[in-house]
Amino acid sequence: MGSLGQRLCWRSHSVELEGKKPPAVTANGIFNEHTGTTCLIASRSLLSFPGTTCLIALLSDKELTVANVGDSRGVLCDKDGNAIPLSHDHKPYQLKERKRIKRAGGFISFNGSWRVQGILAMSRSLGDYPLKNLNVVIPDPDILTFDLDKLQPEFMILASDGLWDAFSNEEAVRFIKERLDEPHFGAKSIVLQSFYRGCPDNITVMVVKFRNSSKTEEQ
Predict the structure, then answer these.
(1) Where do the H-state alpha helices sit in the chain?
(2) How many percent of the chain have pLDDT more than 90?
(3) Which DSSP symbol is given to 214?
(4) What is the reported pLDDT for 21?
(5) What's the CATH number for 3-89+141-218?
(6) Residue 67 CB-half CA count within 13 A
(7) 155-189 in b/e burial notation, b at 16+ Cβ within 10 A?
(8) Taking residues 179-193, what's their average pLDDT?
(9) Is the whole model's pTM more than 0.90, yes or no?
(10) In angstroms, rounded to a whole number, what is the distance separating the alpha carbons of residues 186 and 76?
(11) Which residue has the higher pLDDT, 73 or 132?
(12) Which InterPro entries match (predicted)?
């Protein structure tokens, strides 16, 4: 994951979405913003420019909208303590992604993990232009909407793939739930635990504790 790609992605999305609230921020709007960010990265880079994942969670009074490109993941803990996936990882081995890559004339191969063209371990991203030009890696987000009144969530975890390489959804929810009185401590602790479990990848974690459907605490 390219650090410059992360900075451009964060700057572009944060400026575009600042001051907007659902339903003003629509699924089409998020899709167009991802496309615009991809063009921004292209305009400021060489073809060798690295890419980045992007995970966005937008909270309104009654709905949570989550957009994802790549293999970062969101997971929510509902009122019954269940782990509810908020996003779908974009991995080359998934049947839908594998078929799309094949239709584009690409291939996947195994080199420690399944990779597009033997290079990239995720099938969608922002940036990664050598693969974008081949149309085997795309920037299109999956966008899901959740009813907060129905779920009555306790908290959600937004994290890069480094966490999910070490923890299942259910394990992560149990770990944070036991430390929910101090979400910041819980987020730091699960990062360290992922490292101790041997995760070699970068690990970024945000824990959002729901006070109610409209007020949250971020850590």
Answers:
(1) 3-17, 27-43, 95-103, 129-132, 148-151, 161-166, 169-177, 183-196
(2) 62
(3) S
(4) 54
(5) 3.60.40.10
(6) 23
(7) bbbbbbbbbbbbbebeebbebbeebeeebeebbeb
(8) 96
(9) no
(10) 15
(11) 73
(12) PP2C, PPM-type-like_dom_sf, PPM-type_phosphatase-like_dom
Decide if pLDDT at 188 tops 60: yes
Read off the amino acid at residue 78. Answer: D
Containing H/E element for 69? Answer: strand 63-69
From 99, 93, 95, select the one nearest 113 (Cα to Cα).
93
Classify 74 as helix, strand or coil. Answer: strand
Token pair recorded at residue 83: 């782990």
Strand partners for 75 = 85, 157
> Is the backbone peptide bond immediately before 23 cis, with ω within 30 degrees of 0?
yes
For residue 9, give both structure tokens: 């992605």
Per-residue DSSP letter, 60: -
- Residue 53, sorted as left (phi over 0), alpha (psi -120 to 50) or beta, turns out to be beta
| Identity of the amino acid at 118 | G
Query: Which residue's structure tokens are 């050598």?
Result: 130
Q: What angle, 0 to 180 degrees and rounded to 10, lies between the N-to-C axes of helices 183-196 and 169-177?
A: 140
Residue 75: burial class (beta carbons within 10 Å; 0-12, 13-18, 19+): buried
Indicate the SS3 state at residue 73.
Answer: strand
**Residue range 82-122, pLDDT digits in tens:** 999 999 999 999 999 999 999 999 999 998 889 999 999 99
